[in-house]
Input
Amino acid sequence: MKTHELNLLVENLRTGKMSEKEVIDKIAVFVIKNYPIYGLHKYDEDFRQDILLGLLERGPHLLHLFNPNYGDFFTFLYCYICTLINSKLKTCAQNSIREKLNFEECVQQYEEKEIKYHRINYQNFEVPKIPFNWKKLSTEEFQRAIKDLSLHSEEKKVLILALKSSYYLTDKQIHRICNMYGIDSEQFYQMIQYCKETLDFKRSRLEKEHQKRNFAYYHHKRYRHIIKKYQEDDFFDNKYFIKDLYIYRERKHKNSMVRLNTAFQKGYLYLRTTNKTVANVMGLSERQVNYYMRSVRNEYKNQEDLPEKSTSSDTEIQIAEKE
Output
């Protein structure tokens, strides 16, 4: 491939004669065959491979940056590869300086600690204590402890809600529940810990959902900024396919972000203990736990409807008094 053929690649991309992947492959082949033009003959093969890999990774970005109003593509490609080489050299220099500084700091810290270690009298050291560890109880002991409390239905509802939200309970809330119903704090802590241990898989899944939401938010903002930049540039008209691709990606990441935010707001992705675990701890059946949870939901809905009913009844009383 000659220089004038390289300059025609971007025009072929705009007219649709060649795809973006084909253009990037042609550019990479040209750079591999003519690497002395860009000064890559002065470096080893690993360095040249890193530069070529960076060129392939940033190929679409390279095509979007090029503007034919300011020169030929060959000149632009030469400047771009020189920029990659300079960035790679700076990175290598920074890594070597960082390694040297770390080595010198390690040597200095070792010398300082060596002097301190010689001054230590190891005969005065105390025997290390065994760290405190919770005694794990079985579900039968949990059931026996709750049965001895002889709780009423309302008290069972509160305890079920506490176990369902065990991951979010604070020490203050735990102590308050224990004082209200006379529960042994150590046993209740064991119940909470037992419920938390069943949420390890859900916790990892929740962290992944947070990462997906953050990833979608970042790329939504990024593509929206790129689209705004292209709208201000006369070179990229509305029919140019690059802009349509960015619009599609921006909408996709926006929809993903909105979907995950809605799921977080409605509580679909919260860490809740399963009804089966709560039933095993309290010595109930899953059907009973579902019944208590359903009754709590109905009570909550009735409390939300109370202000509306009270206001309507107050207006009726006022109308009756006027009549």
